[in-house]
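Hi everyone, sorry if this is the wrong subforum. Our group has a chain we'd like a structural model of before ordering constructs, and none of us has done structure prediction before. Sequence below.
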Amino acid sequence: MIYRYESLDSTNEEAKRMVAAADGGAPFGAVVIARRQTAGKGRRGRAFFSPEGDSLYASFVLPPGSHEFATVAAAVAVCRAIEAVRPGAGPRVKWVNDVMVDGRKVCGILAEGVGGADGLAAVVLGIGVNIGLREADFPPELRGVAGALDFSPAERDAFEDALIREVFSIGGCGEEAAQSAEGQAGLDRMAVLEAYRGLSALNAGDPVAVFRAGTDEATAATVVGIADDGGLAVCYSDGRREVLRSGEVSVRAKIV
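Answer:
Right subforum, don't worry. Here is the predicted structure as tokens:
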């Protein structure tokens, strides 16, 4: 079931409210879509720029078993949906949740677990895609960093359809998965992981700045690759290696 709104505080928040209201029977497979968000959510507690227009803000209610791999699967789904509408667009993924086109971020992804009486009740997967925005539409701090897909209205509709199809196909939330609440049906994790690796904008040997969760302090590192659980393997200047499963990396930050 698809629920459409002109404006919401946050599609993720609305999806979480739906799960809470279901009283233990989470509406797996539900999709919440808005044309505008007044309180869009990003990673690390940041706001997600969500202006009114042609952009797409969508949240999917998925079974608990999809939590661990939801962001990886969503990034692949977004890239495939873009290519379905605009072959040759060349979308890339910057670990862990940014989809880039022509070197600019056009999409952010946020997966959140929703607790229930017996543990995790559902996963809410939020995907925000910039469409039809101009440079001047972005706040100053995002200009030169954020970008947008230049889809026509027909292409935007085709992209929305493709995205929903890809998320449910790649994310393992087909009808059988929804009924079992395990989120495994239709999901070949290694195939998705290999697709994610092939789409990665970060390659072995690339220098990055690592930001720990909850801090803006950066540490210099070198990319080793994408680990089997979707984490980013890096090597620090002292030779120590680590697989990052939280936090953020940047290829632009200046490290003092």
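For your construct planning: The first helix runs from residue 11 to 21. The radius of gyration is 18 Å.
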